[in-house]
Design brief:
Elements (H helix, E strand, L loop, with lengths): L1 E11 L5 E14 L3 H6 L1 H4 L15 E2 L6 H4 L2 H6 L9 H18 L4 H20 L8 H18 L8 H14 L7 H4 L2 H5 L3 H28 L8 H13 L7 H15 L1 H16 L1 H15 L14 H14 L8 E2 L4 E3 L2 E3 L3 E5 L1 H5 L42 H18 E4 L12 E2 L3 E2 L6 E4 L1
Antiparallel strand pairs: 1-2, 1-7, 3-4, 4-7, 5-6, 8-11, 9-10
Helix pairs in contact: 6-7, 6-18, 7-13, 7-14, 8-11, 14-16, 14-18
The structure holds protoporphyrin IX containing FE.
GO molecular function: heme binding; iron ion binding; monooxygenase activity; oxidoreductase activity, acting on paired donors, with incorporation or reduction of molecular oxygen
Pfam families: p450
Cofactor: heme
Length: about 450
């Protein structure tokens, strides 16, 4: 097996000082390890299941010296660094990640309550679209952010907002102020000092204020949960955390009040914009390829009929629609890069020496566009994910959620949201360009996620 991974690497010395800027931007061919290679590396041999050494144990550590400028620009996030999940390491990370996965099982994926919640969001978005009565829509992204933010909100706090609720608007505005801006591979992401040279203090102030507003909002909910906590009625992520916190406190400090606060920030940051942006891309592709949209709609109508909504249990019968979503994720690359990893010991991968403390940012997009893996990789072709019987072929090189020990723990939740929202909206609406002559751009804008350039579309009831 081989896949091409481009890496951008920074190397820090033992004292944490940057030795060189980008030392390597190369193309590596990763091959599955031979038995001989496995024997040579004690560390790797413990992790047989990870096919790509890049994502194996040596690189499961998160590099938190190398935060995106988004986080570097305020003092608060730096203080919070390592206390949640995304930037934690070692036993703290393991314990909190395990807890999150358990909480998602209890309150999320596979639970009818989660599905009902997503269906409610679809209804909200559909109402918003219907109000437009086939007129030009330029804020689809905003509608999707409200929906995905509400899903995370209800998982964590146990309730959701109506889409026209002022508190939801404020929450999203606050998150926009914090998380929008250049991503980790922008010049100011690599050299945060540039922000100071540019004297972009207005931006810094906005982010700093955004963080304290978000912190207060979350703290208020945690306090309310502590006051109304009933061990017989566990309502959501926070309640589960309070139970675990009590059990854990005698043994370890993995789950503690600061970790709860930061984990919640992590979940909003990691789970809102990623899902919303992928949905935003989805409808851009659909108006560019009306024939694909029509085929999805025909499949959905054939399987579901007209009288009900698409459910998760319909997924296995909707292979063309599922394949279309896979192709959208391959080409859209909402997360172009995984988050920064760091080598915990000297290692050599396919001849490339990676010294201890080297920061590795795996490029997911390069795997998705590799012409040695995909035929005509730039072509939009959902059929590449279907076999002759029209069944889904799960291609291991489709890695929008990354790979290995740090793989996105929200994958199942995100995939459920993507499937339900995409298929139900296609079932109900016909999406099209406002003017058939509109030329759409597929050059994304890079930031925390890669978003589509602003576009307009129409949604008519089918
Ligand atoms: C389409 C939607 C999503 C995409 C494309 C996506 C993608 C990713 C990627 C590429 C990573 C980095 C993995 C690495 O460093 O190797 C990641 C990490 C993470 N994601 Fe997601 N994600 C999505 C949705 C979600 C959702 C809904 C949640 C919340 C429940 C979530 C929570 C997280 C967390 C907590 C991490 C850090 C994991 C760790 O450090 O162990 N993500 N995601």
């Amino acid at each position: 097996m081989k896949a091409r991974i481009y890496i951008a690497a920074l190397h820090y010395n033992e004292n944490g000082n940057r030795q060189q800027a980008v030392t390597k931007t190369g193309i590596l061919k990763w091959k599955s390890r031979t038995l001989k290679q496995k024997k040579e590396s004690n560390v790797l041999s413990n992790r047989r299941k990870f096919k790509q050494p890049m994502f194996a144990i040596e690189l499961q550590h998160r590099a938190y010296m190398f935060l995106s400028s988004t986080s570097r620009n305020t003092t608060e996030p730096v203080a919070l660094t390592g206390s949640g999940i995304v930037f934690a390491n070692g036993d703290d990370w393991k314990g909190r990640r395990r807890f999150l996965i358990q909480a998602m099982r209890d309150f999320g994926v596979g639970r009818s309550s989660l599905e009902e919640g997503i269906i409610e969001e679809i209804q909200n978005v559909a109402d918003d679209l219907e109000k437009m009565k086939g007129a030009e829509i330029t804020n689809l992204n905003e509608m999707m952010i409200k929906a995905s933010c509400n899903v995370i909100h209800s998982l964590i706090f146990g309730y959701r907002y109506k889409h026209d609720n002022e508190s939801l608007h404020k929450l999203i505005k606050t998150m926009d102020n914090i998380f929008s801006g250049p991503g980790s591979l922008s010049a100011s992401g690599i050299f945060p000092v540039l922000n100071l040279i540019r004297k972009d203090f207005k931006d810094l102030k906005m982010r700093s204020e955004g963080f304290s507003t978000l912190k207060k909002y979350i703290e208020k909910h945690i306090t309310e949960h502590r006051e109304s906590f009933d061990p017989e009625n566990i309502r959501d992520f926070i309640d589960m955390y309070l139970v675990a916190e009590k059990e854990e406190s005698e043994r370890t400090s993995v789950l503690n009040p600061m970790a709860l606060l930061t984990s919640i920030i992590d979940l909003f940051a990691a789970g809102t914009y990623t899902t919303a942006t992928t949905l935003d891309w989805s409808f851009l592709w659909m108006i560019q390829y009306p024939d694909v949209q029509k085929r999805c709609q025909e499949e959905i109508t054939k399987v579901i009929g007209l009288g009900r909504m698409v459910r998760l249990s319909d997924r296995r019968h909707l292979s063309y629609t599922e394949a279309t979503l896979m192709e959208i994720q391959r080409l859209s690359n909402t997360a172009i890069f995984a988050l920064p990893h760091v080598a915990v010991c000297d290692t050599t991968i396919n001849g490339f020496k990676i010294p201890k403390n080297t920061i590795i940012i795996p490029s997911l997009i390069s795997a998705h566009f590799d012409e040695t893996i995909w035929r005509d990789p730039k072509e939009f072709n959902p059929g590449r994910f279907l076999n002759q019987n029209n069944d889904i072929i799960n291609k291991e090189y489709l890695i929008p959620f990354s790979l290995g020990p740090r793989i996105c723990p929200g994958e199942s939740l995100a995939r459920s949201e993507l499937f339900l929202i995409f298929s139900n909206l296609l079932h109900r609406f016909e999406f099209s360009k406002v003017d058939p002559c509109d030329i759409l751009s597929f050059d994304g804008i890079t930031g925390l996620t890669m978003t589509p350039s602003p576009y307009r579309l129409k949604a008519d009831l089918r």
